[in-house]
Write a structure and sequence with these properties.
The structure is a single chain. 21% of the residues are buried. With 498 residues, the protein is an all-alpha fold. About 8% of the residues have low confidence. The chain has four domains: 122 residues, Regulator of G-protein Signalling 4, domain 2, CATH 1.10.167.10; 128 residues, Orthogonal Bundle (Regulator of G-protein Signalling 4, domain 2), CATH 1.10.167.10; 122 residues, Orthogonal Bundle (Regulator of G-protein Signalling 4, domain 2); 46 residues. The protein contains 24 helices and no strands. This is Regulator of G protein signaling 22. One of its GO terms (biological process) is regulation of signal transduction. Pfam families: RGS.
């Protein structure tokens, strides 16, 4: 459970201000810092496989860079992998496929579990100290601020009252419009202060010169009587006093930066953001954006053939990506199940009763893995092309109807047939991901069955179910054939009568 929660947090860490990343960087433990950095790099590597049109050169270059930076024996940011794992990655480095760094990713997860546990313990301790802050919120002055907050937002259209500064930060065009709005009212210093503090907060601690430069800039421009400690400060007198005292003790620490940011942000959202959201220009831009989206949807409806291939492949890729991001451990376990001959045979029998082509999906996935192994063994071109032709003739253009024998969109299969010589070693990339997505949906059911049955009883049980399933399908097919024959006989009788 702890691992799953940590993985979920890692997946959204960039959207949460890199909170866990900064914790590892400030810990002084180089191994933790390297591990969290490598984890982030691995996510970027994986995203290369989900872009429009895979760039094989970029994939290969990124894989080699990751290996030389984090894994090789002289790596400057080593994460301490064992020699066996290092050799395994090296042997499969060319061509580089998506699962190349699976074992390394698991190693990073193991390393990061310790700092994650420490961070949770620290945050729990901090959370228990918020009683004083809650007391302040109940004071008369705070109640007055809440009333002012409510009044300032009363002029904002109801559909935009859920907007906050973070909403604008996710849309670069709107944040530029907001900055222009503030500049016209001589209030842009509030937003630039928050943005400069955020830039400083995200600057790596190892880049000491840059942090010092940005710290000096912030102190000179904002943390003086020119702004934060001046007459037009967004902070109250008490807040200014508290921050000044903390700056003497902690300088510009992460906690101090976040406190100043919170004060500035509250001022922006209480005073300036409602005015911006209430402008006719903002409303007009949102209507124009909605109109563009509507036109795009209509265009797709009028020309579905132009987007069918892209949509079918990308939907399946996004589904796999989402599952991978939230269940990294399960994905690795599932891949091992498929690569283990014993458990793969069990799973193959299990899925044979769940769908028409699911058993073929397993076989197709395995054959593509063997094709990848062939690429890594640097076999001659004739052998590789023969393997490609075999996979195509068995699963994508079968002589036994139907021609397509696996669960992938027809457009995806056609794309492979038409571009087999241009796609290089990644010819089956999207198709393999599509069948993996289908099979992964059945993984929890298979796990539940395995846990409820003795290992030696599992395969006989699955075979027995398979026999019953095939017998049921045979009876159904015979009934359909008999009904069809009866209908034809009826038609012939009617024709003879007339």
């Amino acid at each position: 459970m702890r691992v799953e929660r940590m993985l979920q947090a890692l997946c959204v860490d960039s959207r949460a201000g890199l909170y866990f990343t900064h914790f590892c960087e400030q810990s002084g433990n180089q191994l933790w810092e390297n591990a969290v950095s490598l984890w982030t790099e691995l996510q970027h590597y994986r995203q290369l496989f989900y872009q429009d049109g895979l760039d094989a050169y970029q994939v290969q270059r990124r894989a080699q860079l990751l290996y030389s930076t984090y894994l090789c024996s002289s790596a400057r940011r080593s994460v301490g992998v064992e020699e066996e794992m290092r050799r395994e990655v090296y042997d499969r480095l060319t061509p580089a496929f998506e699962e190349l760094f699976d074992g390394v990713g698991e190693h990073c997860v193991t390393l990061l579990l310790e700092p994650w546990t420490l961070m949770l313990a620290r945050d729990k301790e901090s959370y228990q100290q918020v009683g004083t802050s809650n007391t302040r919120l109940n004071s008369p002055s705070s109640s007055g601020q809440l009333i002012l907050w409510s009044e300032s937002w009363s002029s904002v259209p109801p559909c935009y009252r859920g907007y906050r500064l973070g909403s604008l930060l996710r849309h670069r065009n709107e944040i530029r419009h907001f900055l222009s709005f503030l500049q016209k009212r001589d209030a842009s210093v509030h937003l630039t202060c928050w943005l400069d503090l955020e830039q400083y907060r995200r600057t790596p601690h190892r880049d000491k010169a840059l942090r010092q430069q940005r710290s000096s800039h912030i102190a000179d421009k904002y943390l003086s009587r020119k702004y934060f400690f001046g007459p037009d400060s967004p902070a109250s007198a008490q807040q200014q006093s508290d921050v000044r005292q903390r700056l003497k003790l902690e300088r510009l620490s992460r906690a101090v930066v976040e406190e100043i940011q919170q004060i500035v942000r509250s001022h922006i959202e209480r005073t300036w953001l409602p005015q911006f959201l209430a402008t006719a220009e903002f409303t007009q831009r949102q209507k124009h954006k909605a109109s563009r989206n509507h036109k795009a949807r209509n265009l797709k409806l009028r020309h579905p053939e132009k987007t069918a291939l892209v949509q079918s492949s990308h939907v399946s890729l996004r589904q796999v990506d989402g599952l991978w991001m939230s269940s990294f451990k399960e994905i690795l376990a599932f891949r091992r199940i498929l690569l283990n001959p014993v458990t793969c045979l069990q799973f193959q029998h299990f899925v044979s009763t769940k769908g028409e082509f699911l058993e073929n999906d397993v076989l197709f996935w395995l054959e593509v893995q063997r094709y990848k192994d062939l690429c890594h063994s640097h076999s001659d071109e004739a052998t590789v092309q023969q393997k490609i032709s075999t996979i195509i003739s068995c699963f994508l253009r079968s002589s036994v109807p139907p021609a397509l024998q696996v669960d992938i969109p027809p457009e995806q299969a056609q794309h492979i047939l038409e571009n087999r010589h241009e796609l290089g070693p990644y010819i089956f990339r999207e198709a393999q991901m599509s069948v993996f997505s289908e099979l992964l949906k059945l993984w929890p059911q298979f796990q539940a069955l395995r846990s409820s049955v003795q290992e030696e009883q599992l395969l006989p049980l699955l075979k027995k179910k398979g026999v019953k399933h095939r017998a049921r399908l045979l009876r159904q097919r015979r009934r359909e054939e008999e009904e069809e024959e009866w209908r034809r006989a009826q038609v012939r009788t009617l024709l003879c009568f007339h």
